Amino acid sequence: MSMGYVILGLLCAGPLHGYELKRAHDQRMPQAKPAAFGQVYASLGRLERDGLVESAGHDQAGGPERTPFGITDRGRAALDGWLDEVEAPSPHVTSALLTKVTVALLTAGEQRARDYLTAQRRAHTDRLREYTRLKTEPGVRFADLIAADYAIAHLNADLVWLQTTLARVADLRREVGQ
Amino acid sequence: MRPGTVLRLAVTGTRTDVTRILLTAFGAVLATLALLSAATVLSIPNPHQTVSPEVVAYAPYTNALLRESGLRPGLAFALVVLTIPALLFVGQCARLGAPARDRRLAAIRLAGATPRQGLVVAAAESGVAMALGTVVGLLVYLAGRRLIDAPNARGLRPLPTDVLPDWRVIAALVIGLPVLSALVTAGLLHRVVVTPLGVVRRVRTESPRPLPGLLIVFGVVLFALIAPAERYAGRHEIALPFWVLPLVVFLGGLSATIGVVTGAGWISYTVGRLLARYARRPAGLIAARRLQADPWQGSRALAALLAAVLLAAGTAWIASWYRTQARDEVLNDHLQHLAFHEPDSAYQPDPFYERAVHLAGYGALVAALIAAAGLAVAVANSVVERRRSLASLTASGVPRGVLSRAIVWQTMVVAVPAIAVAIATGVALSIGYAQPTVREGGSTYSCSAPPENPHACESADPESQGATVVRVPTVAMRVPVPWRDLGTIGVWGLGSAMVTAGLGLVFLRSSTAPEELRTT
Amino acid sequence: MTEIVYGRGIVKSYGKTQALRGVTIGVAEGEIIAVTGPSGCGKSTLMLCLAGILRPDAGEVGYRDQRIDGWSEAARTRLRRGDFGVLFQFGQLVAEMPAAENIALPLLLKGVRRREARTAAMSWLERLGIAHLADVRPGEMSGGEQQRAALARALVTEPRVLFADEPTGALDTLAGEQVLGHLVRVAREQRTTVVLITHDARVAGYADREVVLRDGMLDPSGLGLAGAGVAG
């Protein structure tokens, strides 16, 4: 997972210990679930094993959670490599939404599919409105803004697809009916 | 709205609007000068103060047209008639940049202007331009009468530069013309609904058929009433106010001219319909559909030209009438001498007639120049207005030659019949003023009383009292139709229509450049 | 909340095409409502009817307690000038006038003094972040700047209702977001009611509520299937 790279990115500004890392993650990473301590320490352990981070001296006061970690040169190189890598432009062709609509149309008939889609559309638009509201709040953080943009763009894509699908179904039926 | 706001909105515009304002003002300058000159001529006091023994009771000018009080109204209305092409030119200039102005008016409406406010702004637009013209015209007039004021050794002037019309007349002209043009604009805009979503012209594809004909007939009838009215006034010794004649001529002339011009719209539509049915080639078809789609385009483009042709045809008839009149006088004089057994006096008619005709010729020339300017403005504007559709036609593979031929078709197919109508109307108008038959003599006779009845000649019927009466017969001559002059006018009219169509072709080249597809 | 603008059974045809076939809609005061639907569904016509620009063939249009569909064009214009603001996709600014004058225009038409109108226009230019464009003509601005100027002009009279027809339709996403951001912010500050016409779910996301139009009728499912002629 990308948690390792997120930690490398956060460490670029300077060494942090585990608790600080978790806080930085929760603050800086937009609209993400709060990171679990266990996850942070597990990732740190893997990174240290691979030589991408190293402990930057001991804090006198505490145990292992008080050990600050810094990024190594190899760590920087790994992060750069990851950032350079182009993500495969994979559409979510296996999304649950598509599966459900397909099944509904194939087996349960059009009325059933329409009922489902009406509800689904409402849920999508509500969510989209929420993100939009978040975006227009005064003093919105930049990271939240681009995360909201990302979510809105995807929700919108779903909505456009929903609409098109229904138009296609209607067209198909009109042709068959004639 | 405050007046300042109206003024600000009225002068808002792009370079095209500046051109429009300047050209409108130029037309207004010409019209103002013509009208002020007419007013000056009519203001020459009569009888004028004696200047030298020879010119007692005559105004002190070198030109007979100005000197003799009876001729001045004729000169004045020739000047008034000259304003008609000038005003038509103004009308044509108003069309410049019309699409941009329509958009602007719609935008102003969208910003919250009521329909009335939109109308006020549109009317003020033309009023302001006209006011600029009349003020400049007044200044030119005032400066001109100073500069060319040149009395000769005997105190005679070539022009009445020593007379100034009443200030109220001047004020009426300088204020009246802009107000009139604003009112006319407002009136014309009644057909145009400026909605916030754009300007909707109430579609005028069908030409109001009887109206142009009626206007022409009205003008001709008005002119035909001149001679009987003068005879009536003469018989009953009523002095018609000086303004009656110019007013009648102006109204009659304007009505007939508008009739001819709007008639061109009907001609466009009809010819377009026929051409659409029978045209075999794309050029003819494009021209036909354009004529049908906007039949008024042709009448707008040809307006000033038709007015000038009408004026010239009228002048040609009057010239022919003057020549006949002169010959009639010579013949009558000859007969008179024959009747009284006197040697022939080799009578020569006043060369004044010739000069008057020449003057009228100059007038027609000025009118024609204004007309050519108006036509050029109209044709250039119509091509530029349609540049987007023309460019897209070219881009989609219509050869430019076809478009060129379409433009030529479109102009000429309307110009030929419209010019014929204009010539006929011009002649018909002037026939009302200058009758087709001239009569001279008939009233002079010599009477020698017999010795037994010396008072025989004083009785009502001297012949029954035994007197010998020798009568000079009435000489009547028909005024010949000046076919040659009219033909020349027609050829010139068609020629200038051709030239302006050619000008349209020049603009076509730049207007069909593919870059024009990007302009909206 | 009370309805500030309503339409009842609005029917409107262009020639033989029926654009609206009996639409009933109410807009609550202070609400931002989105009217969406595919192109040609009649949403622009609905807005023009509600804003008193078009007169419906049948049905009622009301503003507060008054029925306005029977009013004269001049009376409706005065209502628009005072209580309504209108924002279109493009082309509503007077091309020949610089931004500040364009924005001052509604005030000038009301008879406000030139200087006062200019001051008001300048404060709106500042609020929308385009004060530097006061003396620039629309043709020299970017699309987003033009729309912000148009928004300023729609708001300069402090309207109670703002009608916006695809206000971002001609803009790229970011410029559109900026215009919408300003629009929503100012509307909330002034408690202006907004009727937002759009085909774009992202734009509709700025609204509190959304109604969907299809074939000239309201579509309660929002899916574009309720319209007659679709059902078999």
From TrEMBL, chain A:
Residues 107-168 form the Transcription regulator PadR C-terminal domain. InterPro entries: Tscrpt_reg_PadR_C (IPR018309), Tscrpt_reg_PadR_N (IPR005149), WH-like_DNA-bd_sf (IPR036388), WH_DNA-bd_sf (IPR036390). It comes from the Bacteria. Signal peptide: none annotated. Residues 7-79 form the Transcription regulator PadR N-terminal domain. This is PadR family transcriptional regulator.
UniProtKB/TrEMBL annotation, chain C:
GO terms for molecular function: ATP binding; ATP hydrolysis activity; transmembrane transporter activity. One of its GO terms (cellular component) is plasma membrane. Keywords: ATP-binding, Nucleotide-binding, Transport. Gene3D superfamilies: P-loop containing nucleotide triphosphate hydrolases. SUPFAM superfamilies: P-loop containing nucleoside triphosphate hydrolases. Residues 5-231 form the ABC transporter domain. SMART domains: AAA. It comes from the Bacteria. Pfam families: ABC_tran. InterPro entries: AAA+_ATPase, ABC_transporter-like_ATP-bd, ABC_transporter-like_CS, ABC_transpr_LolD-like, MacB-like_ATP-bd, P-loop_NTPase. This is Macrolide ABC transporter ATP-binding protein. It comes from Rugosimonospora africana. The lineage of its organism: Bacteria, Bacillati, Actinomycetota, Actinomycetes, Micromonosporales.
